[in-house]
Specification:
alpha/beta, Aminopeptidase, seven-stranded mixed β-sheet, globular
Length: 275
């Protein structure tokens, strides 16, 4: 996708068996401290490449997958080397650093649920789409949404166990609200059947808290991708360190994410979204 503010590569993987297939785009690691998200993305890549489950093989063959496990490599690197709870990128503003990249997208930018204060964790940036990482993803989607026939956009986050769709900034409903709600509820039920975990589905505005400038809203409203979700994956049980998930929970959490994606894609296919 290009390089980040500090010159780190924003790397992704494309899995394809037929150039005419519709594509599913997965973006992960936009918030640096949410380590389970890149782990889930790499798990999904591995499943698509190696699973012996015929249903997974069918998904791998019938759809093209474009997966970027870490779209904020500077922040992610910083969480390993300096501050485990760092959320933003590493852009410098005087003596302050960092923009919340998931508040920086030019879709109702900085209208709600974000800050104009660069010292804040949810700083939306000096202007809409100001950050190089935001620009890289926007440029990539714009260049490829038609060519790759991207019909589904998934953003992986933690924590809260939620499967959310647009919008984040308003209670106004998207045109396919009923379908997205239906697919999300089916995915929640599939997770419940698999692990017993309860995931809530709904629009982001209704489900977690109002926020604007998110990648999912931009992908749906501006890029025209009809199936768009933000997943909030597991947090640790009985702990205040809500982004530090025990290693033993990585695989089951990642499996839940993949189960939800599989369910959403299969349900959307039944409704004709990939024709």
């Amino acid at each position: 996708m290009g390089t980040s503010t500090q010159g780190n590569a924003i790397k992704g993987v494309k899995l394809t068996s037929n150039n005419n297939n519709k594509a599913i785009f997965i973006e992960s690691g936009i918030h640096a401290r949410e380590w389970i998200a890149p782990a889930a993305a790499t798990y999904i890549i591995n499943q698509l490449l190696t699973s012996q489950d015929p249903n997974v093989q069918k998904l791998a063959n019938e759809y093209n997958w474009i997966i970027f496990p870490c779209v904020n490599p500077d922040g992610y690197k910083y969480t390993f080397e300096h501050d485990r709870m760092w959320r933003k990128n590493r852009q410098l503003f005087g003596t302050c650093r960092g923009v919340d990249l998931n508040r920086n997208y030019p879709d109702n930018w900085n209208s709600t649920g974000s800050s104009s204060d660069p010292t804040r964790y949810d700083y939306a940036g000096p202007s809409a789409g100001s950050e190089l990482e935001t620009q890289r993803l926007i440029e990539f989607i714009r260049a490829n949404v038609g060519k790759e026939q991207i019909k589904t956009y998934i953003a992986l986050h933690s924590y809260s166990q939620m499967l959310m769709f647009p919008y984040g900034y308003t209670k106004e409903r998207v045109s396919n609200y009923d379908d997205l709600q239906e697919f999300g509820k089916k995915a929640s039920a599939a997770i419940k059947a698999e692990s017993g975990r309860d995931y809530v589905s709904g629009s982001l505005y209704e489900t977690i808290y109002p926020s604007s400038g998110g990648s999912m809203d931009w992908a749906h409203a501006e890029a025209g991708i009809p199936i768009a979700y933000t997943f909030e994956l597991r947090g640790p049980p009985d702990s205040q360190d809500l982004f530090i998930l025990p290693a033993v929970q990585i695989q089951p959490t990642a499996s839940e994410a993949f189960t939800a994606i599989r369910t959403i894609v299969e349900a959307a296919a039944e409704k004709g979204y990939y024709k």
